[in-house]
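Q: Start with the shorter request: fold the first protein.
A: Done. Sequence, then structure:
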Amino acid sequence: MHVVSTVHSKGGCGKSTIAINLARTLQLRGLDVAVLDTDKQSTAQNWRASGSDELLPVFGVEKPTNLESTSQGLVDAFDVAVIDGGAHLQEMHAAIIKESNLVLIPIQPSPGDIWPTETIVELIKTRQEVAGSPEAAFVINRRKQGTRLGKATEEALRQFELPVWNGTVDRVAYAEALGNGISVVESSDDKAAAEVESITDNVIETLSTNGRR
Protein backbone atom coordinates (compact mmCIF):
# COMPACT_ATOMS: atom_id res chain seq x y z
CA MET A 1 0.00 0.00 0.00
CA HIS A 2 1.23 3.45 -0.89
CA VAL A 3 0.65 6.31 1.56
CA VAL A 4 0.27 9.90 0.36
CA SER A 5 -0.19 12.79 2.78
CA THR A 6 -0.93 16.51 2.72
CA VAL A 7 1.01 18.39 5.39
CA HIS A 8 1.31 22.04 6.40
CA SER A 9 1.36 23.63 9.84
CA LYS A 10 -0.93 26.45 8.71
CA GLY A 11 -4.68 26.05 8.39
CA GLY A 12 -6.65 27.07 5.33
CA CYS A 13 -4.00 26.30 2.70
CA GLY A 14 -5.98 23.54 1.00
CA LYS A 15 -4.71 20.33 2.59
CA SER A 16 -8.16 18.75 2.88
CA THR A 17 -9.22 19.91 -0.57
CA ILE A 18 -6.22 18.28 -2.21
CA ALA A 19 -6.41 15.13 -0.08
CA ILE A 20 -10.11 14.56 -0.76
CA ASN A 21 -9.99 15.30 -4.48
CA LEU A 22 -6.85 13.22 -4.94
CA ALA A 23 -8.29 10.27 -3.05
CA ARG A 24 -11.59 10.31 -4.94
CA THR A 25 -9.83 10.65 -8.30
CA LEU A 26 -7.62 7.67 -7.52
CA GLN A 27 -10.74 5.72 -6.58
CA LEU A 28 -12.45 6.67 -9.84
CA ARG A 29 -9.38 5.36 -11.66
CA GLY A 30 -10.07 1.95 -10.18
CA LEU A 31 -7.87 1.86 -7.09
CA ASP A 32 -8.95 0.85 -3.59
CA VAL A 33 -8.40 4.01 -1.56
CA ALA A 34 -8.94 5.08 2.05
CA VAL A 35 -8.50 8.45 3.73
CA LEU A 36 -7.05 8.93 7.21
CA ASP A 37 -8.44 12.16 8.60
CA THR A 38 -6.18 13.68 11.27
CA ASP A 39 -7.70 17.15 10.87
CA LYS A 40 -9.44 18.33 14.04
CA GLN A 41 -12.09 19.96 11.84
CA SER A 42 -12.93 16.50 10.43
CA THR A 43 -13.32 17.90 6.93
CA ALA A 44 -12.81 14.57 5.17
CA GLN A 45 -15.20 12.78 7.52
CA ASN A 46 -17.87 15.43 6.97
CA TRP A 47 -17.34 15.18 3.20
CA ARG A 48 -17.79 11.40 3.37
CA ALA A 49 -20.98 11.77 5.40
CA SER A 50 -22.47 14.16 2.84
CA GLY A 51 -21.77 11.89 -0.14
CA SER A 52 -23.06 8.63 -1.58
CA ASP A 53 -22.43 5.12 -0.30
CA GLU A 54 -19.92 4.47 -3.10
CA LEU A 55 -17.45 6.98 -1.69
CA LEU A 56 -14.19 5.67 -0.26
CA PRO A 57 -13.96 5.07 3.50
CA VAL A 58 -12.61 7.76 5.80
CA PHE A 59 -11.05 6.89 9.16
CA GLY A 60 -10.55 9.47 11.88
CA VAL A 61 -7.19 9.45 13.69
CA GLU A 62 -6.89 11.80 16.64
CA LYS A 63 -3.52 10.86 18.16
CA PRO A 64 -0.07 10.50 16.60
CA THR A 65 0.40 7.25 18.50
CA ASN A 66 -2.59 5.72 16.69
CA LEU A 67 -1.54 6.64 13.17
CA GLU A 68 0.91 3.81 12.54
CA SER A 69 -1.43 1.06 13.76
CA THR A 70 -4.36 2.48 11.78
CA SER A 71 -2.26 2.70 8.63
CA GLN A 72 -0.80 -0.77 9.02
CA GLY A 73 -4.28 -2.18 9.53
CA LEU A 74 -5.22 -1.05 6.01
CA VAL A 75 -2.25 -2.53 4.15
CA ASP A 76 -3.96 -5.71 2.95
CA ALA A 77 -7.23 -4.02 1.94
CA PHE A 78 -6.19 -0.88 0.04
CA ASP A 79 -3.88 0.21 -2.75
CA VAL A 80 -3.48 3.76 -1.46
CA ALA A 81 -4.10 5.57 1.83
CA VAL A 82 -4.31 9.36 1.72
CA ILE A 83 -3.62 11.17 5.00
CA ASP A 84 -5.25 14.55 5.47
CA GLY A 85 -2.68 16.18 7.72
CA GLY A 86 -4.57 19.10 9.20
CA ALA A 87 -2.81 21.91 11.06
CA HIS A 88 -1.04 20.05 13.85
CA LEU A 89 1.86 20.25 16.19
CA GLN A 90 5.18 18.76 15.19
CA GLU A 91 4.50 15.38 16.83
CA MET A 92 1.66 14.56 14.43
CA HIS A 93 3.60 15.93 11.46
CA ALA A 94 6.50 13.62 12.31
CA ALA A 95 4.16 10.63 12.59
CA ILE A 96 2.52 11.42 9.23
CA ILE A 97 5.86 11.86 7.46
CA LYS A 98 7.13 8.58 8.91
CA GLU A 99 4.12 6.72 7.46
CA SER A 100 4.21 8.37 4.04
CA ASN A 101 5.72 7.38 0.72
CA LEU A 102 4.91 10.83 -0.64
CA VAL A 103 4.25 14.09 1.22
CA LEU A 104 2.45 16.93 -0.57
CA ILE A 105 2.88 20.40 0.90
CA PRO A 106 0.05 22.69 -0.26
CA ILE A 107 1.15 26.29 -0.62
CA GLN A 108 -1.01 29.30 -1.33
CA PRO A 109 0.76 32.15 -3.19
CA SER A 110 1.47 34.06 0.01
CA PRO A 111 4.58 34.61 2.18
CA GLY A 112 2.45 33.53 5.15
CA ASP A 113 2.23 30.05 3.65
CA ILE A 114 5.88 29.84 2.64
CA TRP A 115 7.50 30.84 5.94
CA PRO A 116 6.09 27.98 8.09
CA THR A 117 7.23 25.29 5.62
CA GLU A 118 10.85 25.30 6.76
CA THR A 119 10.08 23.08 9.75
CA ILE A 120 8.07 20.65 7.58
CA VAL A 121 10.90 20.41 5.05
CA GLU A 122 13.41 19.78 7.84
CA LEU A 123 11.27 16.91 9.17
CA ILE A 124 11.02 15.41 5.70
CA LYS A 125 14.73 15.66 4.98
CA THR A 126 15.62 14.22 8.38
CA ARG A 127 13.36 11.24 7.66
CA GLN A 128 14.88 10.85 4.19
CA GLU A 129 18.35 10.64 5.72
CA VAL A 130 17.20 7.85 8.05
CA ALA A 131 14.87 5.84 5.80
CA GLY A 132 15.48 7.05 2.25
CA SER A 133 11.88 8.25 1.99
CA PRO A 134 9.35 9.87 1.69
CA GLU A 135 9.34 11.70 -1.59
CA ALA A 136 7.94 15.22 -1.26
CA ALA A 137 6.63 18.06 -3.42
CA PHE A 138 5.09 21.48 -3.02
CA VAL A 139 1.67 21.94 -4.62
CA ILE A 140 0.84 25.58 -5.36
CA ASN A 141 -2.80 25.92 -4.42
CA ARG A 142 -5.50 28.54 -5.02
CA ARG A 143 -3.56 30.59 -7.54
CA LYS A 144 -5.20 33.89 -8.39
CA GLN A 145 -5.87 34.19 -12.10
CA GLY A 146 -4.33 37.22 -13.75
CA THR A 147 -1.60 37.70 -11.14
CA ARG A 148 2.11 36.83 -10.96
CA LEU A 149 1.96 35.62 -7.37
CA GLY A 150 2.01 31.96 -8.36
CA LYS A 151 5.25 32.37 -10.32
CA ALA A 152 6.84 34.38 -7.52
CA THR A 153 5.84 31.69 -5.02
CA GLU A 154 7.32 28.97 -7.21
CA GLU A 155 10.62 30.85 -7.39
CA ALA A 156 10.68 31.38 -3.60
CA LEU A 157 10.15 27.66 -2.99
CA ARG A 158 13.18 26.67 -5.04
CA GLN A 159 15.36 27.34 -1.98
CA PHE A 160 13.98 24.16 -0.38
CA GLU A 161 15.20 21.95 -3.24
CA LEU A 162 11.93 20.03 -3.60
CA PRO A 163 9.79 19.68 -6.73
CA VAL A 164 7.12 22.36 -7.18
CA TRP A 165 3.91 21.19 -8.88
CA ASN A 166 1.20 23.26 -10.44
CA GLY A 167 -1.85 22.77 -8.25
CA THR A 168 -5.15 24.58 -8.34
CA VAL A 169 -6.61 27.94 -9.26
CA ASP A 170 -8.96 29.65 -6.81
CA ARG A 171 -12.30 28.32 -8.10
CA VAL A 172 -15.72 28.07 -6.48
CA ALA A 173 -16.02 24.54 -7.90
CA TYR A 174 -13.82 23.17 -5.14
CA ALA A 175 -16.05 24.40 -2.32
CA GLU A 176 -19.19 23.33 -4.19
CA ALA A 177 -17.86 19.82 -4.80
CA LEU A 178 -16.81 19.47 -1.18
CA GLY A 179 -20.28 20.45 0.03
CA ASN A 180 -21.93 18.02 -2.40
CA GLY A 181 -19.84 15.04 -1.34
CA ILE A 182 -18.05 14.68 -4.69
CA SER A 183 -14.73 15.65 -6.26
CA VAL A 184 -14.26 18.32 -8.90
CA VAL A 185 -13.53 15.62 -11.48
CA GLU A 186 -17.22 14.74 -11.12
CA SER A 187 -18.32 18.37 -11.43
CA SER A 188 -19.10 20.47 -14.48
CA ASP A 189 -15.92 22.56 -14.12
CA ASP A 190 -13.56 21.03 -16.67
CA LYS A 191 -10.67 23.32 -15.72
CA ALA A 192 -10.82 22.33 -12.05
CA ALA A 193 -11.09 18.68 -13.05
CA ALA A 194 -7.99 19.01 -15.23
CA GLU A 195 -6.05 20.51 -12.31
CA VAL A 196 -6.85 17.56 -10.06
CA GLU A 197 -6.18 15.04 -12.81
CA SER A 198 -2.74 16.62 -13.29
CA ILE A 199 -1.96 16.37 -9.57
CA THR A 200 -3.11 12.76 -9.63
CA ASP A 201 -0.89 11.98 -12.63
CA ASN A 202 2.08 13.44 -10.77
CA VAL A 203 1.28 11.37 -7.69
CA ILE A 204 1.02 8.14 -9.67
CA GLU A 205 4.27 8.85 -11.52
CA THR A 206 6.09 9.55 -8.25
CA LEU A 207 4.69 6.50 -6.49
CA SER A 208 5.66 4.26 -9.41
CA THR A 209 9.30 4.84 -8.48
CA ASN A 210 8.69 4.24 -4.77
CA GLY A 211 8.54 0.94 -2.93
CA ARG A 212 5.21 -0.57 -1.96
CA ARG A 213 4.38 -1.67 1.58
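Q: Next, the second protein, separately.
A: Sequence, then structure:
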Amino acid sequence: MNETPITRPSTPGLLADALSHMTTLFESEIGLVRREISEKITQAVTSIGVLVAAAVLMLSALILLLQGVVELLVQSGMRPSSADFLVGVAIAIIGGIAVALALRGLSAAKLAPVRTITQLGKDAQVLKEQVK
Protein backbone atom coordinates (compact mmCIF):
# COMPACT_ATOMS: atom_id res chain seq x y z
CA MET A 1 0.00 0.00 0.00
CA ASN A 2 1.33 3.34 -1.03
CA GLU A 3 0.45 6.12 1.44
CA THR A 4 0.61 9.70 0.35
CA PRO A 5 1.98 11.93 3.09
CA ILE A 6 -0.39 14.66 4.26
CA THR A 7 1.13 18.03 3.60
CA ARG A 8 0.41 20.73 6.09
CA PRO A 9 0.69 24.36 5.20
CA SER A 10 3.73 26.10 6.52
CA THR A 11 3.52 28.77 9.19
CA PRO A 12 4.72 31.53 6.84
CA GLY A 13 2.10 30.36 4.32
CA LEU A 14 -0.62 30.53 6.94
CA LEU A 15 0.50 34.00 8.01
CA ALA A 16 0.57 35.20 4.41
CA ASP A 17 -2.92 33.78 3.87
CA ALA A 18 -4.21 35.45 7.05
CA LEU A 19 -2.63 38.74 6.02
CA SER A 20 -4.26 38.47 2.60
CA HIS A 21 -7.67 37.86 4.18
CA MET A 22 -7.20 40.75 6.61
CA THR A 23 -6.20 43.06 3.75
CA THR A 24 -9.36 42.11 1.86
CA LEU A 25 -11.43 42.60 5.00
CA PHE A 26 -9.99 46.04 5.70
CA GLU A 27 -10.53 47.08 2.08
CA SER A 28 -14.16 46.08 2.49
CA GLU A 29 -14.34 48.01 5.76
CA ILE A 30 -12.92 51.11 4.07
CA GLY A 31 -15.61 50.79 1.42
CA LEU A 32 -18.20 50.55 4.19
CA VAL A 33 -16.78 53.69 5.83
CA ARG A 34 -17.02 55.55 2.52
CA ARG A 35 -20.65 54.50 2.01
CA GLU A 36 -21.61 55.38 5.56
CA ILE A 37 -19.88 58.76 5.41
CA SER A 38 -21.71 59.42 2.14
CA GLU A 39 -25.01 58.66 3.89
CA LYS A 40 -24.07 60.99 6.74
CA ILE A 41 -23.17 63.78 4.31
CA THR A 42 -26.58 63.35 2.68
CA GLN A 43 -28.17 63.59 6.12
CA ALA A 44 -26.19 66.76 6.86
CA VAL A 45 -27.20 68.35 3.54
CA THR A 46 -30.85 67.55 4.30
CA SER A 47 -30.53 69.12 7.73
CA ILE A 48 -28.94 72.20 6.20
CA GLY A 49 -31.93 72.42 3.85
CA VAL A 50 -34.27 72.35 6.85
CA LEU A 51 -32.13 75.02 8.50
CA VAL A 52 -32.49 77.23 5.40
CA ALA A 53 -36.26 76.70 5.49
CA ALA A 54 -36.22 77.65 9.16
CA ALA A 55 -34.33 80.83 8.33
CA VAL A 56 -36.97 81.72 5.73
CA LEU A 57 -39.71 81.14 8.31
CA MET A 58 -37.90 83.28 10.84
CA LEU A 59 -37.53 86.06 8.26
CA SER A 60 -41.26 85.80 7.55
CA ALA A 61 -41.92 86.15 11.27
CA LEU A 62 -39.78 89.26 11.40
CA ILE A 63 -41.65 90.77 8.45
CA LEU A 64 -45.01 90.05 10.05
CA LEU A 65 -43.89 91.47 13.36
CA LEU A 66 -42.67 94.60 11.63
CA GLN A 67 -45.98 94.84 9.74
CA GLY A 68 -47.69 94.67 13.11
CA VAL A 69 -45.65 97.59 14.37
CA VAL A 70 -46.53 99.58 11.25
CA GLU A 71 -50.22 98.68 11.57
CA LEU A 72 -50.12 99.73 15.21
CA LEU A 73 -48.78 103.11 14.20
CA VAL A 74 -51.13 103.55 11.22
CA GLN A 75 -54.36 102.28 12.71
CA SER A 76 -55.92 104.22 15.48
CA GLY A 77 -58.52 102.80 17.70
CA MET A 78 -58.63 99.35 16.09
CA ARG A 79 -56.20 96.55 16.85
CA PRO A 80 -55.60 94.51 13.68
CA SER A 81 -51.93 94.66 14.50
CA SER A 82 -52.54 92.31 17.43
CA ALA A 83 -53.41 89.65 14.88
CA ASP A 84 -50.17 90.36 13.02
CA PHE A 85 -48.23 89.90 16.25
CA LEU A 86 -49.99 86.65 17.03
CA VAL A 87 -49.29 85.25 13.55
CA GLY A 88 -45.69 86.47 13.74
CA VAL A 89 -45.15 84.74 17.08
CA ALA A 90 -46.67 81.52 15.74
CA ILE A 91 -44.36 81.55 12.70
CA ALA A 92 -41.39 82.29 14.97
CA ILE A 93 -42.26 79.23 17.08
CA ILE A 94 -42.53 77.03 13.98
CA GLY A 95 -39.19 78.38 12.74
CA GLY A 96 -37.61 77.70 16.13
CA ILE A 97 -38.84 74.11 16.04
CA ALA A 98 -37.38 73.70 12.54
CA VAL A 99 -34.02 75.06 13.71
CA ALA A 100 -34.01 72.66 16.68
CA LEU A 101 -34.76 69.70 14.38
CA ALA A 102 -32.04 70.73 11.94
CA LEU A 103 -29.44 71.15 14.69
CA ARG A 104 -30.36 67.77 16.17
CA GLY A 105 -29.83 66.21 12.73
CA LEU A 106 -26.38 67.82 12.54
CA SER A 107 -25.19 66.56 15.94
CA ALA A 108 -21.87 64.73 16.03
CA ALA A 109 -23.50 61.61 17.46
CA LYS A 110 -25.88 61.36 14.49
CA LEU A 111 -23.07 61.90 11.97
CA ALA A 112 -20.67 59.31 13.43
CA PRO A 113 -20.20 56.12 11.35
CA VAL A 114 -21.64 53.87 14.08
CA ARG A 115 -22.13 50.74 11.96
CA THR A 116 -18.56 50.84 10.71
CA ILE A 117 -17.11 51.42 14.18
CA THR A 118 -19.13 48.46 15.49
CA GLN A 119 -17.98 46.24 12.61
CA LEU A 120 -14.34 47.25 13.09
CA GLY A 121 -14.65 46.29 16.77
CA LYS A 122 -16.00 42.87 15.76
CA ASP A 123 -13.19 42.44 13.23
CA ALA A 124 -10.58 43.28 15.86
CA GLN A 125 -12.13 40.71 18.21
CA VAL A 126 -12.03 38.02 15.50
CA LEU A 127 -8.41 38.88 14.76
CA LYS A 128 -7.50 38.60 18.47
CA GLU A 129 -9.17 35.18 18.64
CA GLN A 130 -7.34 33.91 15.56
CA VAL A 131 -3.96 35.12 16.82
CA LYS A 132 -4.35 33.14 20.08
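Q: Describe the second briefly.
A: The CA atoms of residues 6 and 76 lie 106 Å apart. The chain is about 85% helix and 0% strand.
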